């Protein structure tokens, strides 16, 4: 993912924490999902790959103790995945994957970060299990 953005939901949670002292307890596991239509930062308008008979499901990545995130590194203080993230084997066409997102739940939940892939990936029935190699999922701090 060349770039990622914190969603409106996550920005609001962080601002409430800093400015109002509201509790902020991140999930011990985040879930990586794939999109055929990338949602806006308000979480609307996106289309995640269907889970109905397709072999698709979000992939877990651990935070906190035993974290599978590395960072911050570089001038933009990037965080990257330290493990390969492997999705299920497609049992139906998933479509043209345009983006990925980080959720706080395996299904449903809140979208925390969203980004567009550098190169779209067509995933069809019978393809091997799609994966995001270690270091390829990048979360960057916005700089102006």
Description:
- Strand 8 and strand 9 form a beta hairpin.
- The protein starts with a strand and ends in a 5-residue tail after the last strand.
- The protein has one helix and eleven strands; from the N terminus they run E-H-E-E-E-E-E-E-E-E-E-E.
- It is 9% helix and 39% strand.
- The chain has one domain (3-20, 27-139).
- The mean pLDDT is 91.
- It has one helix at residues 8-20; strands at residues 3-6, 29-37, 47-48, 59-62, 69-73, 78-81, 85-86, 95-103, 111-123, 131-132, 138-139.
- It is mainly beta.
Task: List the main descriptive attributes of the protein structure presented here.
144 residues; mainly beta; six-stranded antiparallel sheet; three-stranded antiparallel sheet
Question: How does the major sheet shape up?
Answer: 6 strands, antiparallel
Backbone shape? globular
Q: Work out the radius of gyration.
A: 15 Å
Helix and strand composition category: mainly beta
Helix tally equals: 1
Average pLDDT figure: 91
What percent of the residues sit in helical stretches (DSSP H or I)? under 10%
Taken in chain order, the helices and strands follow as: EHEEEEEEEEEE
Taken together, the total number of domains comes to 1
Distance between the termini: 20 Å
Strand content: 35-45%
DSSP summary, beta strand count: 11
The low-confidence runs, each spanning 5 or more residues with pLDDT under 50, are none
